[in-house]
Amino acid sequence: MPVVAQAQPQSFTKNQCVTGLRAAVNILEKWKATGDQACRILRISRSTYTRARQREVEWAVALDADQMQRISFVLNIHGTLRLVFDNPDNVYGFASMANDNEFFNGRSPLEIMAQGDMVSLYETFRRIDMLRGAQW
Question: Which of 14, 26, 35, 50 is the right S-S partner for 60, CB 3.0 to 4.6 Å?
Fold first, then answer.
């Protein structure tokens, strides 16, 4: 009988979780996300969001793979916007601007991401990443 290797869930150190979470929260604040939007996008509690905003306070948090993937999407969207735009107003303002492209239908990328499901977050990332074109 063949032995089947089971995939181990990826675990992250608490330091990685705190660092990633604080970076994502900082970006979301610069995008003018509300606290509720940030909590839905990252799938975190209000208390975790509040602690992440307190830079001088040392604390630990354990996040699951889904939450870390959400953080990764936020960081990658931010990275893409920095590649596409030179102007900081565009880098940080794009996410909250109404977008009339087919997928967004007049809603902002932030509104779509704040629906809270992974598909909305992924599709928002995918469409913003397409702005990059052949810039690599």
Answer: 14
3-state secondary structure the chain: CCCCCCCCCCCCCHHHHHHHHHHHHHHHHHCCCCHHHHHHHHCCCHHHHHHHHCCCCCCCCCCCHHHHHHHHHHHHHHHHHHHHCCCHHHHHHHHHCCCCCCCCCCCCHHHHHCCCCHHHHHHHHHHHHHCCCCCC
Over the stretch 29-67, which tens digit does the pLDDT of each residue have? Answer: 999 999 999 999 999 999 999 999 987 778 889 899 999
Question: For residue 88, how many C-alpha atoms fall within 13 Å in the half-sphere facing its CB?
Answer: 2
Q: Rounded to two decimals, what is the model's pTM? A: 0.87
Q: Where are the domains of the chain?
A: 14-130
Q: How far is Cα 74 from Cα 83, in angstroms, rounded to an integer?
A: 14
